[in-house]
Fold each of these.
Amino acid sequence: MSAGIILIGPPGVGKGTQAQLLTERRGLVHLSSGDIFRAEIASQSDLGRLAKRYIDEGRLVPNGITIEMMAKRLRTGEVRRNGFILDGFPRTVRQAEALDDDFGDLDLTLMGVVSLTASDDTILQRLAERGRADDDIETVRRRLQVFREETAPVIEHYKGKGIYRPVNSDQTIENVFSDIEECLGQ
Ligand code: ADP
């Protein structure tokens, strides 16, 4: 049985940064749905071409495609040996339910669902500094709205399971990381 973490939170809250630290210090495999989509776009695959249309508009890529893509990554031997961090997935309740089913099939378990929060000011500032193609103000506004409508209910999904761990991301990278370590139990 292999164990992992879900990092959840709005765009720009620092999920990628913390996932990278968790990878370096705990050896977990980082599975970022956004990074995987961007790699597909770069390689000009059919999946990449399809995903790009949604990503450029700040909309979610359809559930079926996203679930299949992530399930494939979760099925690897590397994940089984080292454990995993899910970053950007699940982003809808439908994805969370599909993941629950997959976990049973794949013999995977969750150490915790870490929910990162920060003020809107902090988020907008971090996104402005990052300046990715989909970080223009209109697309960001759409992504924040999608987060409130589609992803906030995912947090409720995990609250009921006793593995929900809120962490304040409005502090230094190291302090956020040590809060995550603490709430994961070491
Ligand atoms: P951020 O978390 O900073 O918004 P990501 O790199 O996680 O950025 O995601 C970028 C885009 O990729 C999203 O706006 C969305 O279009 C798409 N995407 C990423 N993960 C998912 C997912 N789980 N379901 C649907 N679309 C996704």
Note: The chain has a mean pLDDT of 95.
Amino acid sequence: MARLIVDTPGGTYPVHIGRGVLKELRRTMARLEPTGAVVVADASVRAIAQAAAKHLKAARVKNAIYVVPGGERSKSLAGLAGLLAFLERQRIDRGGCIVAVGGGTVGDLAGMAASTWLRGIRYIEVPTTLLAMVDSSIGGKTGVNGVRMKNAIGTFWQPSAVISDLACLDTLPRNRYREAFAEVVKYAVAMDRGLFDVLHRESARLTAGDQDALEDVIERCATAKALVVARDERDRGPRAILNYGHTAAHALEAASRFRISHGRAVALGMRIAANIAFALGLCSERLVDAQDELLTTYGLRDEHPRVSLDRMMAAIPTDKKARRGRVAWVLPRRIGHAVIGQDVPVRLVRRVVRGAIA
Ligand code: GLY
């Protein structure tokens, strides 16, 4: 079992990682002493939500379960309104808290509700997907989608604890497990050379879901994220490193009308970013190949999706990190180190993107 601390101006909190750590909810309740709680859960993890509710009950915290209907579609202002109305019906007061059980969608929605209900109540993240364990559950970004733009409406609101129980991954569909490795490779290439070596060495154990290897990898990713968030909670500078691969990925998701999963889009986005870096003389061809090989090892093959080049190029300047149409790329220099805020000629982007799609 691992425990690390995230320390930000907006809050300091523990991240518990390991098999069976869901029971940490009891100790967390003893620390927070909430006046009541709502467990906000994804419909696919009802059993985990019920287990969480039992721990709350054992800690004498009155609670109710709110099952988020409709997955990603609920990550909207209408979905938020539904959840806020539930908090009101449950008479959650300022001393109350939310426990978010699910993937990034539920975490973002529940966090947004926590940050706005009565101008802010506490919440606890119980991520049930590998993607949420290594990324979205840490760092306090909450939000819902706008009409066209993903995560357009949101807040920074740090959770009071993150509880990543590896047992939650037992029921995670294989493809979702595999695709989370795009974000894991992101940390390795952009920030952590040691993690890159671990991913190489332990690929057989990790692809098979070996718990010890997985705990180590989740801890490394969470530590990398905690360090970045501690330096730049509000995403004004260094936090942009976490956007490695995401500039092209978000454009690809938009151009494909979200038919391409986030993991596949990030994998392709990192291939595009590395090829741009190589063309600019920022990194070696060896890095491009090493990243490509590692992604392929984790089942994220270099498949060229069928999306329109024009549509994708049009979507790139709408990236949330762009200012006046100027896109700030995150580009790798060497394994374990990337640079942020890079300007890239549009012609070069177009050439590389053309080579990456059908
Ligand atoms: N997922 C990127 C961030 O938290 O900043």
Note: Residues 135, 139, 141, 235, 239, 242 surround glycine (CB under 6 Å).
